[in-house]
Amino acid sequence: MSSIQIYFDQDRAFFVEEVTPFLEKNEAVNAMMLGLCFAMHQGSFADKKIELIRITKDGELNSVAIKESKSSLVLTFISEEEIVLLIQTLMEKSIPILKVLDPLKSCERFAEIWSKKMNVNARLSMKQKIYQLDKVNDLEFVDGAMALADERDRELLVQWFYEMVKEAIPYDDLTLEGAQDWVDKKISNNALFLWIQNDVPVSMAALTGATRCGVRISAVYTPPQFRRKGMATSLVGNLSQHVLNEVAEKCFLYTDQINLTSNGIYQKIGFNPVCESVLYVFEPNL
Questions:
Q1: d(CA 157, CA 96)
Q2: Which domain holds residue 71?
Q3: Residues 168 and 200 in one domain
């Protein structure tokens, strides 16, 4: 009979060192968690309460979970036996979980069991695809050029990021102050990019969640008046090439499966689907 053990690590450096080689075996699927580990290694979240969870089977690391400060649980692939034991342990420790995300099958089963145990409703909030790019396809892009965002763009980008979140995730509690913080961090890290056409910014995208071999492209947004004109395709294509040339070996990207237009754009650029990812939100039963 197999022996499953669950560890809640307090030492963040130890946790990152222990789990990173395991996560890198499936880098695209675990890109979000690897990004969290890299951020912790760089000193981020020092003032945040985060649960760092390792699950071993017969002494070998078999799955990993991170509970972020907003009570969102990020999972790797995890067996049902491990899910049951993890939920039991979370309940014993009175650790709240408001959201669970990443691999489809793992999250579906966790949401099903957690909702029954806690007498809450599990709402499928988002169904995404995880993509990986190793080479940018030969494409003709629209007129314009990619530019690194700076303080002069701050006000516009705060507005765009706020509008993007409210459009894509209407239930999110993002405030304008939160949008300002996000933009400020991205600008200070040289991680926010624009497509400029005729001296006018028309689309944005960001880099986030660096891993050993890759980096994630996120926050791709084009205001309504500039859509369906190739702006996002041009920006993401050029940003992907920039990443491959100067930053990392691979690009990763999450996209909403419902948005067939964006999925088509990313595949046209050279992104290949790796797996499905979901986000479940737990709400009180009415």
A1: 33
A2: 4-128+279-284
A3: yes
